[in-house]
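We close this part of the discussion by returning to an individual protein. Part of our work consisted of pairing the sequence of a single chain with a tokenised description of its backbone. No coordinates are needed to read the tokens, only the vocabulary itself. The amino acid sequence and the backbone structure tokens for this protein are reproduced below:
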Amino acid sequence: MIVYDVAPPYDRNWALFRHFRSMPFMAGLEFVVTSTNANYVQQLARDERIYEIIGKPYGLDEIVRAVKEAIRARPTR
């Protein structure tokens, strides 16, 4: 489980996200993404496997909920 924040400059941070995502050991991980510009990130994320995108401002309870749900939804091995 990775919680990743896409902050300005969005394009550079998104490129770093895609780099992380392309690493073989990241293949089975779920991502929860946060951003001050969630609408823009949703457009960038159309072809990416992201569990949830959470816009700021958010409460810690939202992050905890998303992480718990993503862990529960993960297939068992």
Q: What stands out?
A: The first helix runs from residue 10 to 22.
